Amino acid sequence: MKKHLFPYILLISAFITTNINAQSLPDLIKNGNAKLSSGNYAGAEQDFSNAIKVNESVVNNYLDKMKKYGTLNEYQRSTSDMPDGFVYNNDYATPYYGRGQALEGLSKQQDALADYEKAIAIYPKHPEALCQRGLVYIANGNKEKGCMDLKKSKGYGNAKAKEMYEKNICSDVSKSFITSGDIKFQEKKYQEAFEDYNNAIQLNGDSYEAYLKRGKCNTQLKKYAKAITDFDKAFKIKQDTVEVFYLRGLAYNASENFSLAFNDFTAVVKLEPNNYDAYMQRAYSCEGLQKFRSANYDYSEAIRIKPKDGAAYYKRGLLNQDSKDNTACKDFKIAASLGYEDAKALADGCNAPPPQPK
User: Fold this and answer.
1) CATH number reported for the structural domain that contains residue 285 in this entry
2) Does the pLDDT at position 353 exceed 60?
3) Distances in whole angstroms, Cα of residue 225 to Cα of each of 256, 296, 318
4) Contact at 8 Å (CB) between 16 and 46?
5) Rounded to the nearest 10 degrees, how much is the dihedral formed by the CA atoms of 107, 110, 112, 113?
6) Is 224 in the same domain as 149?
7) 227 close to 216: Cβ distance less than 8 angstroms
């Protein structure tokens, strides 16, 4: 570089810096938005970049404060200089969101994504940035993340995200979460399956299948109250279904709410009079309610439906173990002959039936 040009370069650089600093943050944002509206994406990118430079130290201090607040416990928060909680500032996110739009207009998707992520880091409930980040994710093939962003954006009132939902852009993603959850449920990874079903519900709050399956996960995780809530929601979407009555009945039985369990299993047998499992579960409810004659009836109905299944014989035998007519012994022997392992020891220890009168 020629030495005589160096002073001019310094002068130009100083002029540019002075010109940037001379423009207020609101002016830079206003100009950037105007250029976005006119399709001047390169000009908008420059204005928003200048806005970011002007406000950089303030934003960094804000992010440091946010990070610090996130590490405080409840007591520390109450005694900090933010006793009412951390106050998010949407204005700090605006230049990043604006530059993200400009970069999208310039087909710089990855750079735009970075700016949207920064805007969301500053203001996690930024509806526009969430919407745009979601659309970029979807365009890049990451539809699951994209749809979750659209869901959040819609929840914060963004009209564009709402429109996308009305076009069912994410309905297939909800189904893919259910499919993924089914695989994990079969592998007995119930917490992971729960997360997938939960995501499916977030994407489609009217999914009968997702509520039903999340309820099953909650039952396996022994969160019976939550399971019952899920089954109630499924029932509101699709009423009078055997599946909901049966699964909710299981949750009631598991939580020892035998009366409501009895009602659900009664609803099942009314709809399906030959439902073996419903009779077996209702018998258990009856035992919990100490309605032993009713339990005996239900085990007998189960035997009628599946006479070659040893479980009902065994259960009925246990119920009648103290009776004097030796019917329990007979049930244990039948159950054992049908291969029901738990009945074999009891069958071997049975007394011989009393002699019949001649």
Assistant:
1) 1.25.40.10
2) no
3) 11, 29, 30
4) no
5) 140
6) no
7) yes
> What is the residue range of 288's domain?
215-348
pLDDT value, residue 189: 96
Closest CA to 316 of 265, 263, 279, 345: 279
Q: Which two tokens stand for residue 255?
A: 């939580």
What is the rounded distance in angstroms from the CA atom of residue 253 to the CA atom of residue 60?
Answer: 55
Mark which of 166, 182, 205 sits at the end of a domain.
166
**Is the overall model pTM greater than 0.70, yes or no?**
no
DSSP state for residue 81 in the 8-state scheme: S
Which pair of structure tokens corresponds to residue 337?
A: 């002959």
For the stretch 246-255, pLDDT in tens is: 999 999 999 9
If asked whether residues 157 and 26 sit together in one domain, one would say yes
**DSSP secondary-structure letter at 5?**
G
242 and 158 belong to one structural domain: no
Question: CA-to-CA distance for 102 and 94, rounded, in angstroms?
Answer: 12
Taking CA atoms, 282 is separated from 89, 291, 297, 329, 330, in Å, by 57, 11, 10, 23, 23
Nearest to 184 by CA among 221, 147, 150: 221
Q: Rounded distance, CA 177 to CA 355, Å?
A: 64
153 pLDDT band, cuts 50/70/90, is very high
Q: Last residue of some domain: 166, 197, 230? A: 166
